[in-house]
Design brief:
This protein is mainly alpha-helical. Helices cover 57% and strands 4% of the residues.
Length: 291
Protein backbone atom coordinates (compact mmCIF):
# COMPACT_ATOMS: atom_id res chain seq x y z
CA UNK A 1 0.00 0.00 0.00
CA UNK A 2 2.88 2.35 0.81
CA UNK A 3 4.42 1.61 -2.57
CA UNK A 4 1.15 2.38 -4.37
CA UNK A 5 0.90 5.74 -2.60
CA UNK A 6 4.54 6.79 -2.85
CA UNK A 7 5.41 5.62 -6.35
CA UNK A 8 2.12 5.15 -8.18
CA UNK A 9 0.27 8.09 -6.62
CA UNK A 10 -2.78 5.86 -6.22
CA UNK A 11 -6.08 7.40 -5.17
CA UNK A 12 -7.81 6.41 -1.89
CA UNK A 13 -10.43 4.54 -3.96
CA UNK A 14 -7.71 2.51 -5.74
CA UNK A 15 -5.94 1.80 -2.45
CA UNK A 16 -9.12 0.55 -0.83
CA UNK A 17 -9.86 -1.71 -3.80
CA UNK A 18 -6.32 -3.19 -3.94
CA UNK A 19 -6.20 -3.73 -0.18
CA UNK A 20 -9.55 -5.49 -0.09
CA UNK A 21 -9.07 -7.66 -3.18
CA UNK A 22 -5.45 -8.68 -2.60
CA UNK A 23 -6.38 -9.59 0.98
CA UNK A 24 -9.17 -11.72 -0.48
CA UNK A 25 -6.55 -13.70 -2.41
CA UNK A 26 -4.28 -14.02 0.64
CA UNK A 27 -7.22 -15.38 2.63
CA UNK A 28 -7.82 -17.89 -0.18
CA UNK A 29 -4.17 -19.00 0.07
CA UNK A 30 -4.54 -19.45 3.81
CA UNK A 31 -7.68 -21.54 3.36
CA UNK A 32 -5.78 -23.70 0.84
CA UNK A 33 -2.93 -24.23 3.31
CA UNK A 34 -0.41 -22.42 1.09
CA UNK A 35 2.61 -21.15 3.06
CA UNK A 36 5.20 -20.50 0.33
CA UNK A 37 5.12 -18.30 -2.79
CA UNK A 38 6.77 -21.18 -4.68
CA UNK A 39 3.45 -23.04 -4.35
CA UNK A 40 1.51 -20.26 -6.12
CA UNK A 41 1.35 -21.75 -9.61
CA UNK A 42 -0.95 -21.86 -12.60
CA UNK A 43 -3.07 -24.67 -11.16
CA UNK A 44 -3.66 -22.79 -7.91
CA UNK A 45 -4.57 -19.59 -9.76
CA UNK A 46 -7.01 -21.51 -11.94
CA UNK A 47 -8.61 -22.80 -8.73
CA UNK A 48 -8.82 -19.23 -7.44
CA UNK A 49 -10.53 -18.09 -10.64
CA UNK A 50 -12.99 -21.00 -10.37
CA UNK A 51 -13.67 -20.03 -6.76
CA UNK A 52 -14.39 -16.43 -7.81
CA UNK A 53 -16.74 -17.69 -10.52
CA UNK A 54 -18.55 -19.87 -7.98
CA UNK A 55 -19.09 -16.76 -5.84
CA UNK A 56 -20.86 -15.06 -8.74
CA UNK A 57 -18.13 -12.62 -9.81
CA UNK A 58 -18.47 -11.55 -13.45
CA UNK A 59 -15.58 -11.79 -15.93
CA UNK A 60 -14.74 -8.09 -15.58
CA UNK A 61 -14.39 -8.45 -11.82
CA UNK A 62 -12.24 -11.59 -12.09
CA UNK A 63 -10.06 -9.91 -14.73
CA UNK A 64 -9.60 -6.84 -12.53
CA UNK A 65 -8.54 -8.95 -9.54
CA UNK A 66 -5.96 -10.84 -11.60
CA UNK A 67 -4.65 -7.56 -12.98
CA UNK A 68 -4.23 -6.26 -9.42
CA UNK A 69 -2.43 -9.48 -8.47
CA UNK A 70 -0.07 -9.06 -11.43
CA UNK A 71 0.79 -5.62 -10.09
CA UNK A 72 1.29 -7.17 -6.65
CA UNK A 73 3.54 -9.82 -8.23
CA UNK A 74 5.70 -7.12 -9.84
CA UNK A 75 6.11 -5.58 -6.39
CA UNK A 76 7.10 -8.95 -4.87
CA UNK A 77 9.62 -9.43 -7.69
CA UNK A 78 11.06 -5.96 -7.19
CA UNK A 79 11.46 -6.62 -3.45
CA UNK A 80 13.24 -9.93 -4.10
CA UNK A 81 10.50 -11.97 -2.41
CA UNK A 82 9.87 -14.06 -5.56
CA UNK A 83 12.14 -14.93 -8.49
CA UNK A 84 9.38 -14.48 -11.08
CA UNK A 85 5.89 -13.04 -11.19
CA UNK A 86 3.64 -16.06 -10.47
CA UNK A 87 0.51 -14.23 -11.58
CA UNK A 88 1.61 -14.11 -15.19
CA UNK A 89 1.09 -17.87 -15.52
CA UNK A 90 -2.61 -17.37 -16.28
CA UNK A 91 -4.23 -15.16 -18.90
CA UNK A 92 -6.74 -12.51 -18.00
CA UNK A 93 -10.32 -13.52 -18.90
CA UNK A 94 -11.59 -11.84 -22.04
CA UNK A 95 -14.12 -9.24 -21.00
CA UNK A 96 -16.89 -8.46 -23.49
CA UNK A 97 -16.95 -4.83 -24.51
CA UNK A 98 -20.36 -3.22 -24.21
CA UNK A 99 -21.03 -0.18 -26.31
CA UNK A 100 -22.28 2.68 -24.17
CA UNK A 101 -25.87 3.82 -24.63
CA UNK A 102 -25.77 7.64 -24.62
CA UNK A 103 -28.75 9.90 -24.20
CA UNK A 104 -30.11 11.73 -27.21
CA UNK A 105 -29.97 15.53 -27.19
CA UNK A 106 -33.71 15.85 -26.31
CA UNK A 107 -33.31 13.28 -23.51
CA UNK A 108 -30.32 15.19 -22.16
CA UNK A 109 -32.19 18.49 -22.17
CA UNK A 110 -35.14 16.93 -20.34
CA UNK A 111 -32.86 15.39 -17.69
CA UNK A 112 -30.89 18.60 -17.09
CA UNK A 113 -34.16 20.49 -16.63
CA UNK A 114 -35.54 18.05 -14.05
CA UNK A 115 -34.31 19.65 -10.77
CA UNK A 116 -36.56 22.24 -9.13
CA UNK A 117 -34.30 25.30 -9.10
CA UNK A 118 -36.56 27.15 -6.67
CA UNK A 119 -34.94 25.10 -3.88
CA UNK A 120 -31.30 25.02 -2.64
CA UNK A 121 -31.08 21.29 -3.40
CA UNK A 122 -32.52 21.80 -6.88
CA UNK A 123 -29.96 24.53 -7.65
CA UNK A 124 -27.16 22.23 -6.52
CA UNK A 125 -28.47 19.27 -8.48
CA UNK A 126 -28.92 21.33 -11.67
CA UNK A 127 -25.30 22.50 -11.35
CA UNK A 128 -24.10 18.91 -10.87
CA UNK A 129 -25.97 17.65 -13.94
CA UNK A 130 -24.75 20.55 -16.06
CA UNK A 131 -21.11 20.06 -15.01
CA UNK A 132 -21.20 16.29 -15.60
CA UNK A 133 -22.56 16.76 -19.11
CA UNK A 134 -20.76 19.97 -20.09
CA UNK A 135 -17.35 18.87 -18.79
CA UNK A 136 -17.51 15.10 -19.35
CA UNK A 137 -16.31 14.48 -15.79
CA UNK A 138 -16.07 11.18 -13.95
CA UNK A 139 -18.16 11.19 -10.78
CA UNK A 140 -14.98 10.87 -8.67
CA UNK A 141 -13.63 14.00 -10.36
CA UNK A 142 -16.88 15.87 -9.77
CA UNK A 143 -17.10 15.17 -6.02
CA UNK A 144 -13.40 15.98 -5.64
CA UNK A 145 -13.81 19.52 -7.00
CA UNK A 146 -12.97 22.50 -4.81
CA UNK A 147 -14.07 26.12 -5.15
CA UNK A 148 -10.50 27.06 -6.05
CA UNK A 149 -10.61 24.71 -9.07
CA UNK A 150 -13.05 27.06 -10.83
CA UNK A 151 -11.87 29.68 -13.29
CA UNK A 152 -14.94 31.91 -13.67
CA UNK A 153 -13.42 34.11 -16.35
CA UNK A 154 -12.38 31.32 -18.71
CA UNK A 155 -15.19 28.86 -17.93
CA UNK A 156 -12.75 26.15 -16.91
CA UNK A 157 -12.34 23.54 -14.18
CA UNK A 158 -9.06 22.15 -12.90
CA UNK A 159 -9.76 18.42 -12.62
CA UNK A 160 -7.76 15.69 -10.93
CA UNK A 161 -8.34 12.50 -12.91
CA UNK A 162 -7.18 8.90 -12.58
CA UNK A 163 -3.66 8.53 -11.19
CA UNK A 164 -3.87 12.10 -9.90
CA UNK A 165 -3.41 13.38 -13.47
CA UNK A 166 -4.37 16.99 -13.90
CA UNK A 167 -6.41 18.32 -16.81
CA UNK A 168 -8.60 21.27 -17.73
CA UNK A 169 -12.32 20.66 -18.29
CA UNK A 170 -14.23 23.22 -20.33
CA UNK A 171 -17.73 24.35 -19.37
CA UNK A 172 -20.40 25.92 -21.54
CA UNK A 173 -22.46 28.95 -20.58
CA UNK A 174 -25.45 26.99 -19.17
CA UNK A 175 -23.12 25.05 -16.85
CA UNK A 176 -21.36 28.23 -15.70
CA UNK A 177 -24.68 29.96 -15.01
CA UNK A 178 -25.92 26.94 -13.04
CA UNK A 179 -22.68 26.88 -11.03
CA UNK A 180 -22.90 30.61 -10.35
CA UNK A 181 -26.48 30.29 -9.06
CA UNK A 182 -25.52 27.34 -6.86
CA UNK A 183 -22.41 28.99 -5.37
CA UNK A 184 -24.16 32.30 -4.79
CA UNK A 185 -27.54 31.22 -3.46
CA UNK A 186 -27.49 27.53 -2.55
CA UNK A 187 -24.03 26.55 -1.29
CA UNK A 188 -24.07 29.06 1.64
CA UNK A 189 -27.23 27.33 2.92
CA UNK A 190 -25.54 23.92 2.80
CA UNK A 191 -22.46 25.22 4.65
CA UNK A 192 -24.30 25.61 7.97
CA UNK A 193 -21.39 27.49 9.48
CA UNK A 194 -18.77 24.91 8.50
CA UNK A 195 -15.58 25.86 6.68
CA UNK A 196 -14.76 23.76 3.64
CA UNK A 197 -13.31 24.32 0.19
CA UNK A 198 -15.38 21.48 -1.32
CA UNK A 199 -17.51 22.70 -4.22
CA UNK A 200 -20.51 20.36 -3.94
CA UNK A 201 -21.88 19.88 -0.43
CA UNK A 202 -24.40 17.58 1.22
CA UNK A 203 -27.10 18.73 3.63
CA UNK A 204 -24.70 18.43 6.56
CA UNK A 205 -22.15 20.82 5.03
CA UNK A 206 -19.71 18.07 4.07
CA UNK A 207 -18.37 17.02 0.69
CA UNK A 208 -20.95 15.26 -1.47
CA UNK A 209 -20.20 11.57 -2.16
CA UNK A 210 -20.21 9.68 -5.46
CA UNK A 211 -22.99 7.44 -4.15
CA UNK A 212 -25.20 10.47 -3.47
CA UNK A 213 -24.71 11.68 -7.04
CA UNK A 214 -25.64 8.25 -8.41
CA UNK A 215 -28.82 8.14 -6.32
CA UNK A 216 -29.68 11.67 -7.42
CA UNK A 217 -29.33 10.77 -11.11
CA UNK A 218 -31.49 7.69 -10.69
CA UNK A 219 -34.18 9.83 -9.07
CA UNK A 220 -34.25 12.46 -11.82
CA UNK A 221 -34.12 9.94 -14.68
CA UNK A 222 -37.17 8.21 -13.23
CA UNK A 223 -38.88 11.55 -12.65
CA UNK A 224 -38.69 12.48 -16.34
CA UNK A 225 -39.53 8.96 -17.54
CA UNK A 226 -36.23 7.94 -19.15
CA UNK A 227 -36.20 4.21 -19.87
CA UNK A 228 -32.41 4.05 -20.24
CA UNK A 229 -30.23 3.40 -17.22
CA UNK A 230 -28.68 6.75 -16.35
CA UNK A 231 -25.50 6.96 -14.28
CA UNK A 232 -22.81 9.66 -14.03
CA UNK A 233 -20.85 7.64 -16.59
CA UNK A 234 -23.85 7.76 -18.93
CA UNK A 235 -23.50 11.55 -19.03
CA UNK A 236 -19.76 11.17 -19.71
CA UNK A 237 -20.56 8.81 -22.62
CA UNK A 238 -23.19 11.25 -23.82
CA UNK A 239 -20.71 14.15 -23.66
CA UNK A 240 -18.21 12.28 -25.87
CA UNK A 241 -20.79 10.97 -28.32
CA UNK A 242 -22.42 14.37 -28.83
CA UNK A 243 -19.01 15.94 -29.47
CA UNK A 244 -18.17 13.36 -32.15
CA UNK A 245 -21.65 13.67 -33.68
CA UNK A 246 -21.02 17.41 -33.85
CA UNK A 247 -17.78 16.95 -35.77
CA UNK A 248 -15.14 16.98 -33.02
CA UNK A 249 -11.93 15.08 -33.79
CA UNK A 250 -10.95 12.04 -31.73
CA UNK A 251 -7.76 13.58 -30.31
CA UNK A 252 -9.66 16.56 -28.90
CA UNK A 253 -12.23 14.26 -27.30
CA UNK A 254 -9.40 12.16 -25.84
CA UNK A 255 -7.90 15.29 -24.29
CA UNK A 256 -11.22 16.46 -22.89
CA UNK A 257 -12.00 13.05 -21.37
CA UNK A 258 -8.53 12.70 -19.88
CA UNK A 259 -7.87 9.32 -21.52
CA UNK A 260 -4.23 8.22 -21.46
CA UNK A 261 -4.66 6.12 -24.64
CA UNK A 262 -6.51 6.93 -27.83
CA UNK A 263 -7.81 3.35 -28.02
CA UNK A 264 -9.90 4.03 -24.91
CA UNK A 265 -11.58 6.94 -26.68
CA UNK A 266 -12.14 5.00 -29.92
CA UNK A 267 -15.10 3.10 -28.45
CA UNK A 268 -17.10 6.30 -28.87
CA UNK A 269 -16.48 6.31 -32.62
CA UNK A 270 -18.48 3.05 -32.86
CA UNK A 271 -21.39 4.73 -31.11
CA UNK A 272 -21.15 7.74 -33.38
CA UNK A 273 -20.91 5.56 -36.51
CA UNK A 274 -23.96 3.52 -35.52
CA UNK A 275 -25.86 6.76 -35.07
CA UNK A 276 -24.62 7.96 -38.47
CA UNK A 277 -26.00 4.76 -40.02
CA UNK A 278 -29.40 5.34 -38.42
CA UNK A 279 -29.46 8.90 -39.76
CA UNK A 280 -28.43 7.69 -43.22
CA UNK A 281 -31.13 5.02 -43.40
CA UNK A 282 -33.75 7.46 -42.21
CA UNK A 283 -32.71 10.46 -44.34
CA UNK A 284 -31.33 9.17 -47.64
CA UNK A 285 -34.09 8.94 -50.28
CA UNK A 286 -32.77 5.69 -51.82
CA UNK A 287 -31.36 4.04 -48.67
CA UNK A 288 -34.33 1.70 -48.27
CA UNK A 289 -35.08 1.18 -51.95
CA UNK A 290 -35.08 -2.45 -53.01
CA UNK A 291 -32.88 -3.33 -56.01
Amino acid sequence: MTYLVAEKNASPHTLDKYRREIQQFLSFLEAQGIQDWADVDRLLLRRYMAWLNSKGYVKASVSRRLSELRSFGRFLLREGIVSYNPFRSVSLPKVPKYLPVPLSVPETVVLLSAPDISTPQGLRDRAILEVLYSGGLRVSELVGLNLTDLDWQRGELLVWGKGAKERIALLGKPAMLALQAYVEYSRPQFLQGTATNALFLNRFGGRLTARSVMIMLKKYSRMVGLEKKVTPHTLRHTFATHLLDGGADLRSVQELLGHARLTTTQVYTHVSQSRAREVYLRAHPLAKREL
